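We give the chain.
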Amino acid sequence: MGCAIMNNDGTTNITERFQKNFRRYREYIFICSLIIIIYLTSFYDNYLLFHSVIELVGIMMTLTIFLVFWNTRKAIDNQFFTLLGLSFFFMGIIDLLHTLSYKGMNIFIGYDANLPTQLWIAGRAFQAMTLFLSVLFIGRKLNISVVWIVLGVVTAVLLTLAFTGHFPDCYIEGTGLTTFKIISEFIICLIYASSIVVLYFKRSNFSSSIFYFISAAISFSILGEFFFSLYFDVTGTFNIFGHIARFISLYFFYRATVHVSLKDPLSLLFQNLQSKHSQRLHSLIENIPEGIVLLDEEYRVIIKNSAATEFLPYLVKGKQTNKVQNISDYSIEEILNPPSSNLTFYKIHVDSPDARVFHIGGMKITQGAQSGDSILVIHDITSENKIRDKVQTQEKLASIGKLARGISHDFKNIIWAISGAAELIETQSKDENLRNLGNMILEQAAKGNDLIDQILDFSGQSKAYDEVLDLKPIVEETVRLASSSLPANISVDINIEDFKIKINKIQLQQILLNLIVNSKDALKQGGKIQILTQIVHSSEVKDFESINMPMQDSNFVKICVIDNGEGIDKEDLNKVFDPFYTTKPKGEGSGLGLSQVYGLTRQHNGYIDLKSTKGEFTQVDIFFPLSDS
């Protein structure tokens, strides 16, 4: 029983394979059978039946190709098929007249075997040239009406030349083919061969099956023309082989167009539409800011967009971006298999070649043709982080300023009371020790008052009279005052022009003195402080907070204070304007110098920017509106 079942299964499998192969090759079997039947007719009635049948069947295929493409021309955006389909209509007309004028048909009286041979050469030259042009015009837009008229005019001219006796002789009774006919056949073969070469380089416009069918069609056309250059008698063997090769060529054109388009429309009629869809999808992926990477099962990169091309070198260890095994300190398996089923993004900080922050997420594809592959999504959040930090800094400074405004006036009153009491002690006490104590209290109260003034400057609440001032003399005077307190190994270079700004003189001097003192403290081993001024357009104004930037078309005075000192760490750059924040040792600074610069600059509608590199330099740029008066 077991053996019988196995034999039955084996027989079933053989039957199924036979049926499957028969379905696959039955069309070829039918065409081969049709060619054999048509060939057998060549042995009847002096070749005329064979010629008529093979030509008429070929003309039917030719006109069928034309009708399909004429009725689908609006759906086809590939101009190869448009031009080829139109040319087949006119080629069918020429071939029909060639068939009707053949020797023995007795339809066109007064003509010999030369006329059908002339029409044959005219038809094959027309087909070769239009095929070559069809290949050349792949991807270009053609005006169908213009093409229709041009092809019609060319066909009419060829037919007129042939029927009026002005077409060169191609066949002479009793002599055979003329030199013109033979040379023409080889030229036609050369044009066909050129078409295959150009078609090969443009094969991406077709599915692989259509490309192979068209290549086969052209190849059999070349073979047929070769046979047609060899015969002596119009009913000879080479003529028969030439017609059979021509018939097979038409079948492959038919196969590449009508049959494929009806069996699998997406392979032909919508080939270019698919290409456009792919191009649009490709354009979408290429232009999104996120990096998109498709990995195979071994995590080799299959596809990556331009953003991913930029991001991967930051993230992949060893810079081997063609295969991804680790993303920073995470393994690729860890990213693609997060703890939860939802897409999880990991935050990754990168310091080299420059500081960047990324969100990385990924997932494995579990369904469809790409099952087993994986997708990585990379989002550069560096700018978002900077904006968030700046917003937080702005909110923090605003809160500190609000607090400073709330307490400064109360402290002023306390200081005033302490100063008054100390002054009474100093002036009225006869005890020298008490007088000295009163004097010390007055000095400390004055320092406390100055501290409160700095807090008010930071919060923008200090009161002072503004006036339009010449910048140059104030800068020069401030530098002279500051130079007396600078060590001998620190020099101050100024390069300034005489611009006018509206500001309080004392407060401008406070800004400059604070910046000079700050630079001095950074030059522990000595060095140079530069003070520069220039006029800049509002579009060039920068601010460390990047907020409330000037939008109107105006000019600003830029004051630069630069030192070649020890610089500031990156993580400290956004903190240096915070009140009481200092990088100096305890007891060496109040942390209010740059806060005062910040507050006074804002109070006068100015902007402030800071650039620094640790161990190299620090540059503070202050922008004030240029005064016209």
